Amino acid sequence: MAFYQMLRNESLYPRGEASPGQAGWIAARLLRLRALLNGEITSKRQPDTLIIGSWNIRHFDGGRLRLPESYHYIAEIIDHFDICAVQEVKDIKAVERLVRLLGPNWDFFVNDSSGPGRGNNERMAFLFDRRKVSFRHLIGELVLPKGALPGDEQIGRTPFFASFQAGWFKFTLCSAHIVFEEQANRPLREDEIRVIATALAKRAKEADEVHVMLGDMNIEDPGDAGMQALVNNGFKAVPLGPTTLSGNRHYDQIAFTGPHNETNLVGHGVLRWQDAVFTDAEAEGYRSVAPTDGEPDGGEPDADWPRAYRAWRTHEMSDHLPVWIEIRTDYSNEYLLETQRLLPGEGRPPTR
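RESULT FIELD:
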C-alpha cells in the first residue's frame, strides 16, 4: 500500500483543502483516485492472479519538475499493479522517489540511457511488489544481430527485459518505446516492432516460457503495420483500446507469446486517471501553481489557461494512460490432473 504519512508533515504540505499542494487537497484526490481504481481493478480482481501494468510517464522527470502531489497520484496508480513497466524515464532519482512512496515491499530495476538522438536520453524501469512477484535473476537489453534493421542500426530506445515469477507463472517482460518520428532511410515503427517480436518469439520457443512485449509502441490504429508485425510473429495483442488522453490513438500495447495454456487472461483495462485527478473541472484551481503556456520548462502565463491546462497536466501525470492485464497464476489443478492422466499410461496400475 502506498505511503501517506508525509501528508501530515506541515513543512512539506500545508494544512487545508482549498488549494493544490495542501494536504487536504491531495488527500481528497487520492480518495477519488482510489475509488476509481477500486471500481476498475480491485473490486473485480480474481484470486491467484497477477496484474501487469505498463505506463509511459512523460519525461519522468525531465525538464520542469512535477509537483510533489503528482508523485502521490502516480504511486497510487502503480500500487494497484503487481509489476509495472515504465517508459520514458529521464531521471533515476525520480524512480527512487516514487518507490519510496510505494513502500519497502517494492523494488525496481532501471536500464542504461539510450543516449541522445533517436534514444532521447531515455531509460526504462520495472517496478514490482516483492510480495507478489519474484525476480528470476535474468535481466538485460535486447541487442540485434547485424542486418536485422535497415542500415545495421539498433533500435532507437534499447528494449529492456527481465524474468520474473508469480505463483506457478514464469514469464519474461520486454519493455519497449518504439520510435515515433520516422525519417527517410531509417528504421520505421513497424521495423522496430518486427525485430523485437521476432527475437522474443524465438526466445519464448527456446525457453518454453511466456514472453510479454509491452510499452509505448506508437501504434496509432489496430490495423497498422506495427500491429501486423506482432501478429505475424505469433503474438496475441490484448484489445486495450485507445490509450491517449485524446482517446484516438492505440499507442500502448501489451502482447504475449509462448505456451498458450499459461496465458489465461482474466482481465485488462486502460485507466483514465483524468477522471479523478487533474480533471477538466479543476483547471482554475491549478492556475496559481502553473501559470505557464504548457511547455515542460515553463513559460509565460497563458491568456487561455483552460486550453493550456490540458497540455500542462500531461507533464504532471502523462500524455499516456496506464494499461494493465490480469493473468491467472495458479495452474496446480491442471498439473495434478495431467499427472493423474499420465501415470496410468506408463503401464503401471493406479496406486491404491
